[in-house]
Amino acid sequence: MFDWITGFLDGGGAVAIAALMFLENVFPPIPSELIMPLAGFNAARGGTPLWLAILAGGLGSLAGAWFWYLAGRAFGAHRLRRLIARHGRWLTLTLSEFAAAEGWFRRHGRAVVFFGRFIPTVRTLISIPAGIERMPQGQFLLFTALGSFIWSGGLALAGYLLEDRYEAVEHWIDPLSTAVVLGIIALYVWRVIRWKPDA
């Protein structure tokens, strides 16, 4: 994996970084926790300059998040309510829970969108409710960009500073990312089992 990503980044430069980060947000094949430290590692070896790697990573991440925001906005709350009424168990949602979530997202949406950029899987999914709830597009892009550039920049800088010791970044971030993803899957299974329709 390391050799493939490094070769891809060497050959494609900033465009390759942006493409991988876009894909990571649309359908996560390779986590950003691996992409951006390697981009920083390559920058330290004389590859794509660090500032350009961070810019490309942030823009790719932002574009992927915007894709899901637009998808959620096109789908809309009305269609989602009909989907919940038919398939609530598999969505692990009832109509009353959705109504409560709508109110909560309206109150805390900006913070959720910003901090969601730092959590594996959540950073992909959080754009959908933002679109469904029609969070103002300017606000969504601003808070997503802030979170994306901080996250991408921090990972790239870590890879740049560690250089040949980049594995140290992966060793503490990768297990945490795996634990979060497994926790989300376990929570989903638990909610499917415990799901009950509205009375």
Automatic annotation (TrEMBL):
TM region(s), chain numbering: 7-30, 50-71, 140-160, 172-190
GO CC annotation: plasma membrane
Membrane topology: Multi-pass membrane protein
Segments forming domain VTT: 30-160
Superkingdom of the source species: Bacteria
Cellular localization per UniProt: Cell membrane
Name of the molecule in the record: Inner membrane protein YqjA
Organism name: Paracoccus haematequi
UniProt keyword annotations, A-Z: Cell membrane, Membrane, Transmembrane, Transmembrane helix
Gene (name only): yqjA
